[in-house]
Design brief:
Largest sheet: 6 strands, mixed
Structural class: alpha/beta
Radius of gyration: 24 Å
Distance between the termini: 83 Å
Number of strands: 11
Order of helices and strands: HEHEHEHHEEEHEHEHEEHHEHHH
Length: 362
């Protein structure tokens, strides 16, 4: 008797659960957002991160939370994405935070600063090293909550019409370069220009600029810089890595069900990791193709690197002295960088350098 009673109650409970589960799913609202990107669709690695993000958000919410991606210029120009999210023109965006260096140099920590963190180090800093809290406290003043949105890894040092053999060769060069790097190079005689990705090639072709940096072999090849500037330099010391970000308007974020917020957290992280992996796969083959097309690969001379490093430290220290928001992040960030580089020198860098030299027969 007790057994029959238990089975009957269990059956009733299972039936209730069957009714309740769909009802809970149906209770979640259908939401449609727009995402403005700072990048053209032709850059499948960077713009592709936004596509990965929006696709996964939809999948994780059973198709009830849909975000449509728009390339640079389709809603707002590429360098106005942050402003659009802040104002609520769009609910979210995908950009590189150092594009907004002119508003406050502190934005750069969310993306890249000269002689900064590698991709792996930046992810560690943001995710486990205090960077998330520090940058989100800063972005809150702009009505934005920020999420990791991809990383390029260490970038190349740019395309030049002429060879750079010394610091003197930089003087008078009109160069497309963003953020802090522009301020540093300006002190060494460069005339910095900030242009969105899609505007670089026309400016280089017409001679409006003499040099340009973008990302690395895969993207640079697609944009065709090698056709008008043969010298390709490494490394991009201003971007030991460049971390891209998804921006969400805070008011819109707070309206979301917690399930949808969790979907954004998960999808943004997946897109972040996927971009770095894609670059690591595609850059070697792209560099090989560029070299076959006559590109002249060069490393910056040591005296140029040393001058840039010394100037960069001075510029950042000066900014910290006058900008309290910058200093609040800079001081702990600098300690984190020191600890990370000391640790890397023990194992990872030693192993990597050995393998590189072994592969060359040294």
């Amino acid at each position: 008797m007790e057994r029959r009673s238990f089975i009957k109650k269990a059956a009733v409970g299972a039936g209730a659960a069957t009714v309740v589960a769909p009802a809970m799913a149906q209770a979640l609202p259908t939401i449609n957002w727009r995402l403005a990107s700072s990048f053209p669709k032709s850059l499948d690695t960077i713009f592709g991160a936004a596509d990965t993000f929006t696709k996964r958000v939809s999948q994780l919410t059973g198709g009830k939370f849909n975000i449509r991606s728009f390339a640079a210029g389709e809603i707002v120009p590429g360098l106005q994405v942050m402003d659009a999210v802040q104002a609520g023109t769009v609910e979210c965006g995908h950009s590189a935070s150092y594009y907004y260096f002119g508003k406050d140099a502190t934005f750069s920590f969310d993306c890249a600063v000269p002689f900064g963190l590698t991709s792996r180090q930046h992810t560690a800093w943001f995710d486990q090293g205090g960077g998330r809290d520090l940058t989100r406290a800063f972005f809150k003043d702009y009505n934005i909550i920020n999420f990791l949105g991809g990383n390029s890894g260490t970038q190349m040092g740019g395309w030049f019409r002429k060879e750079i053999k010394s610091v003197a060769d930089l003087k008078g060069t009109k160069m497309r370069v963003a953020g802090f790097a522009g301020r540093v190079l300006e002190r060494l005689g460069v005339v910095p220009q900030q242009l969105a990705g899609g505007d670089i090639y026309p400016a280089l072709e017409k001679g409006t600029i003499d040099a340009a940096e973008w990302v690395g072999p895969y993207d640079d090849e697609k944009l065709g810089f090698f056709k008008v500037a043969p010298f390709y330099y490494a490394p991009g010391w201003w971007e030991a890595s460049a971390s891209f970000s998804f921006y969400v308007n805070i008011k819109e974020w707070e309206k979301l069900p917690k399930e949808y917020q969790a979907a954004i957290e998960a999808a943004s992280y997946e897109a972040h990791v996927g971009m770095q992996a894609e670059y690591d796969v595609k850059n070697p083959a792209a560099l090989a193709r560029l070299l076959k097309n006559g590109v002249k690969l060069r490393n910056y001379p040591k005296d140029v690197m040393d001058a840039c490093y010394k100037t960069a430290q001075a510029v950042m220290d000066e900014e910290a002295a006058k900008n309290a928001k910058f200093k609040k992040i800079y001081d702990p960030w600098k300690r984190f960088r020191q600890d990370q580089n000391q640790w890397a020198s023990v194992a990872e860098a030693t192993m990597q350098n050995y393998l590189i030299n072994a592969g060359r027969g040294k």
